[in-house]
Design brief:
Layout (H helix, E strand, L loop, with lengths): L1 H26 L3 H6 L6 H28 L4 H28 L6 H8 L4 H34 L11 H50 L2 H12 L12 H8 L9 H9 L6 H32 L13
Helix pairs in contact: 1-7, 3-6, 3-7, 3-10, 3-11, 4-9, 4-10, 4-11, 5-6, 6-7, 7-8, 7-11, 8-11
């Protein structure tokens, strides 16, 4: 089984690199092509790449892990994110797509802010660049942690006594492949790989709870098992304070300033395509969130019913 998983991972990495070379041939002949894919992203690619780059490891690790550990009350985070993403598509997307092209054909967020407010151009460029570099270092590190956990869980002991850590090997492999296709194909490569990953994520997240329910007695058996763990496990309000509720649902406010998401708005084919992309993106997000919730909830029942031990709740999906 481990050999099959390793072959699948190798094919996946090769596929990502192939997309990088494809993007290199299609969109690296100009700065606009390399940085924004020539502003020619289709609605589907713009929508799914925005969603996948936004949630990525959090959707596969963080949310299922939180639900596994604390129960259905953690679903308020997903609800807040869904609302924030919807308003982001409605309020920011069409305006940013139109204004970034009209105001000096800005290719980055700092450049757009400088063009939009020329009297504060230097300060806006410097401050926004510092903010992006500082916080994206943390964001990138979180993504690499996801790769490390995947490799450690799926290929434990692969290197035997060679002294190589499965976790660190996963981090270096993830970093190397992402860096390679990004440097080769630029923004289009990143968007296309995110699109592919988004498709894989949503299928896997939907199938996994179905498999658990099918193999472990259905909804009634799973529900009964969860009630034996904690009668409030499936409650949306158990132990939830007003401050805790606000803290969860206001996660979505962060969407309005996340460059890796809103840059997709700048790159979409036209303002007219924004509405179609919004429909695709929010549909994907809704299904993916339901799948992640299902993974966390059914995963807890699966572990208990089969007498398993899970040291890290974030690895329940893996």
């Amino acid at each position: 089984m481990q050999t099959g998983a390793l072959v699948s991972l190798a094919l996946y990495f090769v596929g990502m690199l192939a997309i990088g070379f494809y993007a290199w041939r299609k969109s690296t002949d100009s700065s606009e092509g390399y940085l924004l894919g020539g502003r020619q992203l289709s609605p589907a690619v713009a929508a799914l790449s925005a969603g996948a780059s936004d949630m990525s490891g959090w959707l596969l690790l963080g949310l299922p892990g939180a639900l596994y550990a604390a129960g259905l009350v953690e679903v308020w985070i997903g609800i807040g994110l869904f609302a924030g993403a919807l308003f982001n598509w409605i309020v920011v997307a069409p305006r940013l797509r139109e204004q970034t092209e009209r105001l000096g054909n800005a290719l980055t967020i700092p450049e757009f802010l400088a063009n939009r407010f020329p009297d504060k151009a230097l300060a806006l460029r410097v401050i926004s660049a510092i903010i992006i570099v500082l916080f994206f270092a943390v964001y990138t590190a979180a993504g690499l942690v996801g790769g490390g956990k995947l490799f450690e869980t799926s290929f434990a002991g692969l290197f035997g006594n060679t002294g190589m850590s499965d976790y660190m090997t996963g981090i270096w492999l993830t970093a190397g492949v992402v860096l390679a296709y990004t440097m080769i194909g630029g923004f289009l490569a990143v968007s296309l790989t995110d699109f592919v990953q988004g498709c894989i994520m949503v299928v896997a997240l939907v199938l996994m709870p179905i498999v658990v329910l099918t193999n472990d007695g259905g909804i009634s058996a799973v529900t009964a098992q969860l009630y034996t763990i904690d009668p409030d496990f499936l409650s949306l309000t158990a132990g939830l304070s007003f401050i805790g509720f606000l803290s969860a649902v206001t996660w979505g406010l962060g969407y309005f300033g996340q460059p890796h998401i809103i840059v997709r708005f700048m790159a979409i084919r036209s303002v007219a395509d924004v509405a179609k992309a919004r429909t695709i993106g929010m549909s994907w997000m809704g299904v993916a969130l339901l799948g992640a919730i299902g993974v966390g909830i059914t995963g807890r029942a699966y572990v208990e019913m089969n007498g398993l031990v899970l040291d890290d709740p974030e690895t329940i999906f893996i």
